[in-house]
Known about the structure:
By secondary structure, the chain is an alpha/beta fold. It has helices at 15-27, 43-51, 59-64, 82-93, 142-149, 171-182, 198-207, 221-226, 236-244, 255-266, 284-289, 293-306, 311-321, and strands at residues 2-6, 33-37, 56-58, 72-76, 97-102, 113-116, 131-133, 160-164, 187-191, 212-213, 229-232, 248-252, 270-275. Helix 9 crosses helix 12 (293-306).
Amino acid sequence: xxxxxxxxxxxxxxxxxxxxxxxxxxxxxxxxxxxxxxxxxxxxxxxxxxxxxxxxxxxxxxxxxxxxxxxxxxxxxxxxxxxxxxxxxxxxxxxxxxxxxxxxxxxxxxxxxxxxxxxxxxxxxxxxxxxxxxxxxxxxxxxxxxxxxxxxxxxxxxxxxxxxxxxxxxxxxxxxxxxxxxxxxxxxxxxxxxxxxxxxxxxxxxxxxxxxxxxxxxxxxxxxxxxxxxxxxxxxxxxxxxxxxxxxxxxxxxxxxxxxxxxxxxxxxxxxxxxxxxxxxxxxxxxxxxxxxxxxxxxxxxxxxxxxxxxxxxxxxxxxxxxxx
Length: 325
């Protein structure tokens, strides 16, 4: 059995839970899976796991009664609590293999293996750390591998814009971006996230006729591939856009995301724009006009070279070779 210790919230976003459940979906035929969430996890997290028929428990429950078949623990968390540190120590005592999925070298823990897909690290790893390092290990849905292979045709003028600010995007911030984009003749499609209520989506459709929302799906590969430009937060979405060969404009929430946006801009696959709270001060048309056809073709090609969407298969091979499953 593998335990996936992960969580999601408005504060930490949904990326950690999304990538953990996807990795787990490719491992469930090889081993039993148990998700472990914090006691403070909200109803949306519970519903997300229940709808996908995942077995899950609370962290306190796990510390009180650990299944005897546990072989390894995968941690994918933004923050580690004292209980999480206790679980790491418990794993060492029980000779379970421990794996940490993280970004930028943040919150490094004393685990056996680390998976970090970041291009650059805010906090580099020591030489003794065993790290699966770089975009080759980005955990993306298998449909991105399909669209990565498809030869793209880039339009002369930008027509389709995809907005993806993450699973925990706030209504007011999303509305600001829609308002900024809807003043132009672009076809706008939006990933609404997990916390945007249906009533809020209906309100936005009424205010901005013609906008489209992505329905329930496990993969955003097609919306990313069909877009000429993606307006995104530089988290998992940045790798998804890159795998599809879609140039991106990065709007960050905090300094860590700004660091990621800057790293990706240096790779010439997207442009760092602004803090998401400064949307109204951004000349979006000017930024879009800078993305000429030649520029977008070049960015899309470099993006596909950086992220090939095979990371999850490399990780599974590693797990099998090192008997983590």
